[in-house]
Structures are given as structure tokens and as C-alpha cells.
From TrEMBL:
The keyword Transmembrane applies. Keywords: Membrane, Transmembrane, Transmembrane helix. The chain crosses the membrane at residues 34-53, 90-115, 136-158, 190-209, 216-237, 309-327. Coiled coil: none annotated. The keyword Transmembrane helix applies. This is ABC transporter permease.
Length: 335
């Protein structure tokens, strides 16, 4: 080979596309958050897998050894033994981590993902390297959303497997109902939808404030308010069923999501149950003819799930659309 051939040979260079470069830079910049998320999923998944296997076996053996599975269990069954306490703790840890996820996601999205990069100029540097602001924001939303949904739905699947087990001690002993807040959220689509809404809200707050610490604080408060409002609205997202009982039967006893209880007069008016201190005939003398209870049966699980999920996704979509509009106004034709 001559020197001329060497000079004339084209150099082989590997070019990285802007999108791939943005993805790699993002994963490298936020590798601590990625490792934290993987660790959180691993801990919660490990707790649920343990609860489904040896945890459930030892708790159930302890439960049956105490005679609590009999038709007339003894009074000691009201207090769990050590094996059942460990089982209960493992499940509570998994549920607690999932319930904490929206706050962690909102804080990270507002503070580190967006606010810090706008504050220290990293975002503008990326925009000058063949990455448009719109593509930058899309990557900031898409990559975490994919990881959040994948991890959260994995935990939801594991918890549903545990919940549907015929030998799940907590289900048998009635310590958790399908309508309990943590169980209700992790057993359906709400947990993943909450994470997506928290991500979108955090990103929007970060774009609005453009500073890490203020964005972190405001995002946490906003996500907390959103979760609180939806928890309060949950019983009213689907029509309730009503059960009415006579004075002789007493107040309705329902093991489900109770929305409202009270008393009925002869005219059918709903009034609070009067306080009578056990005095015979007191309710009738006060004009009470029946008791009532509005409630959601277990068959309302998925209607309530999907209604709340829809609201959360609507909040997420609105926050994402507002974020893109805000970014376009601030960067002009660069978007």
C-alpha cells in the first residue's frame, strides 16, 4: 500500500445520532436516580415474592396451628404471631414504597430532571448540539415514563398474584379489604397513572420555576394535593349501591367501601343517626324508621379504578401539553 492509498482511504467514523446521544447523556446524568428506581423496584418485588412464598407458608402454618382457620376461632387470633407479623410487614413495605412513588417522582422531575438543568445551563447546551428543545423535552418525559410504568406494573402484577392466592393470610383474616387505600391503588392501574401524573406535573413545575430547590418543593406539594383530592373523590366516581335495614335489624353491616351511612324518616328523608345511649324505642320516637348505607361492592373495583386512572392521565396529558407550549414560547422558533 502506497502513501497515496493511505491518504485517499476514507476514514471510518462511527456517528451517533442526536436522539441516541441525548438518551445516553440522560441516562449517564441521572444514573443515580435510575439505580435508586431499580433498587426500589427490587426491594418491593423481593418483599412481595417472599410474601408469596416462604412468608405465606410460615404465616399460614402459624395461623392454622393456632386454630384460627376453624369455624369458631379463639380470641388469640385477633393478635398476629411473629410469622404473620413478618408477612404483614413485607406486604406493607411493598405497598408503602408504591404509595411513596408519586412524591419521589414529582420531586425528582421538578428538581433534578428539569429545574437543575435549566438552572445550570445544561439544557441550553444540549439545544446547541443538534437537539431541539422539543426533542429534549420529549426525551425527558418518555424515558422516565417508560421506566416508571414498567416497574410499577410489575409490582402491580406481583401484588395481584399475592392478593388472589387462596392462602393469602391477610386476605383470609380480613386485615385488608379490596377498598383499603394502599391495596386498592397497587392492585390496579392507579399506581402507574399516579407516577405518570407526578412526572408530568414535576416537569411542568420545573419549566415554570427553572430552579431546582423551589421546583422540588412546589412539585411535592402539588403532587400531594393531587393525590389527596383524588383519594377524597374516589367514592364518588361511580354510582353507589344502597342497602336499607329496619330498626330491629340495626345498622347495616357491610365489609366494603362505605360512602355514607345514616337513618331514614317516614318521609324518606336522610338524617344522621340520633344518639340514644341504648334507650329502648328512642329511634322510633325521634321519627326514625330505617337505617341506610351507601357503599361500593367489590364488583365496583374496576369501574372506580378506570375512572380515577382516566382523571390522572388527563392531568398528565394537560401538564405535558402545557409544558410543550411553555417551552415553545420561551425558545421561539428553536422548538
Amino acid at each position: 500500500m502506497t502513501a497515496l492509498d493511505t491518504v485517499g482511504a476514507p476514514a471510518l467514523t462511527r456517528r451517533t445520532s442526536p436522539s441516541r446521544g441525548l438518551l445516553l447523556a440522560m441516562l449517564r446524568l441521572h444514573r443515580t436516580a435510575l439505580l435508586f428506581w431499580l433498587g426500589l423496584v427490587a426491594v418491593a418485588a423481593g418483599a412481595l415474592l417472599w410474601a408469596m412464598g416462604p412468608g405465606a407458608d410460615t404465616a399460614w402454618a402459624e395461623y392454622t396451628d393456632m386454630g384460627c382457620d376453624q369455624a369458631r376461632p379463639n380470641l388469640g387470633c385477633d393478635s398476629p404471631g411473629p410469622a404473620t407479623s413478618r408477612y404483614q410487614t413485607a406486604v406493607a413495605v411493598a405497598i408503602g414504597l408504591v404509595r411513596l412513588l408519586p412524591l419521589l417522582t414529582g420531586a425528582w422531575a421538578g428538581g433534578a430532571l428539569i429545574g437543575r438543568e435549566l438552572e445550570n445551563g445544561t439544557a441550553r447546551l444540549a439545544w446547541t448540539q443538534s437537539v431541539s428543545p422539543a426533542r429534549w423535552l420529549a426525551a425527558k418525559l418518555a424515558v422516565p415514563a417508560l421506566l416508571l410504568v414498567t416497574g410499577t406494573l410489575t409490582l402491580t402484577l406481583l401484588h395481584r398474584m399475592l392478593w388472589s392466592s387462596d392462602r393469602a393470610p391477610l386476605s383470609v383474616m380480613g386485615w385488608r379489604g379490596w377498598h383499603d387505600t394502599g391495596t386498592f391503588e397497587i392492585n390496579g392501574t392507579i399506581a402507574a397513572a399516579e407516577a405518570l401524573a407526578a412526572l408530568a406535573v414535576g416537569v411542568l413545575v420545573g419549566l415554570l420555576l427553572r430552579r431546582a430547590l423551589p421546583a422540588l418543593g412546589v412539585a411535592v406539594l402539588t403532587v400531594m394535593s393531587l393525590v389527596y383530592v383524588l383519594d377524597a373523590l374516589r367514592p364518588y366516581l361511580w354510582p353507589v349501591k344502597t342497602v336499607v335495614t329496619s330498626l330491629d335489624d340495626g345498622t347495616p353491616s357491610i365489609d366494603s367501601m362505605i360512602v355514607e351511612t345514616g337513618a331514614l324518616t317516614a318521609s324518606g328523608a336522610r338524617v344522621p343517626i340520633p344518639w340514644c345511649s341504648g334507650e329502648p324505642g328512642c329511634q322510633a320516637r325521634k321519627g326514625i324508621t330505617h337505617y341506610y348505607a351507601d357503599y361500593h361492592p367489590a364488583s365496583h373495583f374496576w369501574p372506580l379504578q378506570l375512572m380515577e386512572t382516566g382523571l390522572l392521565l388527563a392531568v398528565a396529558a394537560l401538564a405535558v401539553a402545557t409544558a410543550f407550549v411553555l417551552l415553545r414560547r420561551r425558545t421561539g422558533a428553536a422548538v
